[in-house]
Design goal:
The complex is a heterodimer of chains A (204) and B (310). Chain A is an all-alpha fold and 204 residues long. Chain A has 12 helices and no strands. Chain A has one domain. Helices cover 82% and strands 0% of the residues of chain A. The two termini of chain A are 26 Å apart. Chain B contains 10 helices and 12 strands. In chain B, the strands form 2 sheets. In chain B, strands 3, 4, 7, 8, 9, 11 and 12 form a 7-stranded mixed beta sheet that branches. Chain B has a 5-stranded mixed beta sheet with strand order 2-1-10-5-6. In chain B, strand 1 and strand 2 form a beta hairpin. The longest helix of chain B has 14 residues. Chain B starts with 16 loop residues before the first helix and ends in a 13-residue tail after the last helix. At the A-B interface, helix 4 and helix 6 of A face helix 4 of B. The complex binds protoporphyrin IX containing FE.
Chain lengths: 204, 310
């Protein structure tokens, strides 16, 4: 049995509920650490960044599912909805930390959304995720038919905005946001050039 | 010419941290009595608005806070990187190369400098451009005294500073986050101002490496990045020297970089700040013009458009 087959065998046995649980647990755990002085002396920014980082990592994981199957034969498609909704949950918590704990001043919140380009870009990413989260259920897939696939291509826009947001908020010339951007760029490129085997499969 | 500027906080003559922590409690006790709380803390702003002072009783941050949340990109861009890696930096022996328009250029060892300076204590607000702030009890001497020692010539108009660049001890400089070495500068009147100091300690101890050992600049009315750390070069010149953040992002960081809640920054609103140490539910407080040192320094910029010269 190949590596991919073995992985697929394991993945088949994992209930999606376990994926939700596994990825949601860090959220209250981080909050607990931050509230109890175990996330450094500036827990607000640290927590905000942790949630943002989790959101971006989940978005990347979601983006990797199709190429993982196409190129390596690893099938995690069952978990894609969970990953997408989890990413949305982390962006929402990231935004909530910013709104309530970080800024907390209504006039300044508006000014920041309009005037700070990296916040505007982040908000754009969050806004695009709302219709995706709302339609991440079987009923919407049935109702929207082929339009659902089209709508969910917005994911590409969301990750691009997420990558841009990270690049813009980093001071100076930093490596980490560049690595994320490169990873996202690479995953998006796989959409432009599907692997040969798939083409062959399709044409025969 | 030390002690030009008086800290009237009496307790601050004593240095051990425990004394500060005690005072912290005393101050907290006084907080309800606005007038007294104000009187106890106006010292820092000699005769200025007690209204501000009473809501802002300048209790110093703890040593742990001051030494665990730092920007010192030579050791990495994470806030905890300096605390983790800065102990790799060798700070003894240490020499500061003083050159340019001075009568007595040369390599000044740290010991030479310390032997000639009078160390005093200053409790200053510290405001980072990232909109967080601390209150730090520095030990050090006025930059003006060092410039006098070097014999700065009257034709010099600016002072340029340079941070140590030693890749084998500084993991952060292997990536061009900034154009290393870190450089900063002040106009001569800013450099000679009695508030401007060279810090060599905190809480009466030697300056921790992550805070810029063995000596760093402290300019309390400017954003923190102006207060360059671990200085190895001081040059007197007649032109405005290049400064690191300005070179990196000229639209965001100007040469002056005075704390100014009214001048917008494309990345962070400068209208408010969060004092480190309040935990997860700390509220922001309004940022003060010139970081609360308006009475002392506004005159330096009379007639200047602070929006153009941000
Ligand atoms: C697609 C949506 C978003 C993604 C993927 C995202 C991701 C991120 C990431 C990866 C970071 C840096 C984490 C780190 O340093 O490790 C970050 C920081 C941050 N994000 Fe977001 N974000 C999103 C939306 C938003 C929104 C809607 C807001 C607020 C309106 C926001 C505000 C911030 C702030 C304030 C920071 C910290 C900046 C600083 O410390 O200077 N983000 N975000």
């Amino acid at each position: 049995m190949s590596m991919a087959d073995r992985l697929n065998g394991v993945a088949r046995k994992v209930p999606t509920g376990a994926v939700y649980l596994l990825f949601l647990l860090p959220a209250p755990w981080f909050f607990y650490l931050a509230a109890n002085g175990q996330m450094g002396v500036e827990p607000i920014n640290t927590l905000e960044r942790k949630y943002g980082e989790m959101a971006l990592q989940l978005l990347i994981l979601g983006l990797a599912i199709t190429p993982l199957r196409q190129y390596l034969g690893i099938n995690l498609i069952r978990f894609r909805r969970a990953i997408g909704l989890l990413a949305f949950a982390y962006v929402a918590m990231h935004l909530l930390v910013w709104l309530v704990l970080d800024v907390g001043i209504l006039s300044q919140i508006w000014a920041d959304i309009l005037k700070r380009p990296y916040i505007t870009v982040g908000m754009g990413g969050f806004a695009l995720m709302i219709p995706l989260a709302i339609t991440s259920n079987n009923m919407s897939i049935r109702k929207l038919g082929p339009k659902w696939r089209k709508l969910h291509r917005l994911t590409y826009g969301v990750v691009l905005l997420g990558a841009l947001h990270f690049l813009m908020l980093s001071k100076g010339f930093q490596l980490e946001p560049l690595i994320y951007a490169a990873l996202i760029g690479g995953l998006l490129l796989t959409r432009l050039a599907p692997p040969k085997s798939m083409e062959r499969a399709r044409s025969t | 010419m030390a002690n030009r500027w008086k800290n009237t906080l009496k307790e601050s003559d004593a240095t051990p941290e425990s004394v500060y922590l005690n005072r912290r409690q005393i101050m907290a006790g006084l907080a309800g009595l606005g007038a007294i709380g104000g009187a106890a803390s106006v010292g820092l702003m000699s005769g200025s608005k007690p209204a501000v002072a009473s809501t802002d009783p300048l209790e110093p941050n703890t040593l742990e806070e001051i030494t665990s949340y730092n920007n010192f990109y030579e050791f990495g861009t994470g806030k905890d990187d300096p605390a983790r890696y800065a102990d790799q930096m060798t700070t003894s022996p240490w020499t500061v190369k003083v050159d340019g328009m001075v009568d007595r250029p040369g390599d000044y060892t740290f010991e030479d400098i310390m032997a000639k300076m009078t160390i005093e204590e200053r409790i200053y607000r510290f405001r980072c451009v990232e909109a967080w702030s601390m209150v730090i009890p520095w030990n050090g001497f006025e930059l003006a005294d060092l410039l006098e020692l070097a014999g700065v010539q009257s034709s010099a108009k600016y002072i340029a500073f340079e941070t140590l660049l030693r890749p084998e001890e500084m993991p952060g400089v292997n990536f061009p986050v900034l154009d290393w070495p870190y450089v900063e500068g002040l106009r001569m009147d800013e450099a000679m101002h009695p508030l401007t100091m060279m810090a060599t300690g905190i809480y009466g101890r030697d300056l921790p490496n992550q805070n810029g050992a063995p000596l760093r600049l402290v300019v309390p009315w400017k954003y923190g990045f102006k207060s360059i750390k671990s200085i190895v070069g001081i040059t007197a010149m007649d032109q405005e020297p290049p400064t690191s953040w300005n070179k990196s992002q000229p639209r965001e960081y100007g040469f002056y970089s005075n704390v100014n809640p009214e001048v917008n920054h494309p990345r962070w609103s400068q209208a408010s700040e969060r004092r480190i140490g309040g935990g997860l539910f700390a509220k922001r407080v309004p940022t003060l013009m010139f970081n609360g040192y308006e009475d002392e320094v506004a005159g330096l910029y009379a007639g200047m458009d602070l929006r153009a010269h941000f």
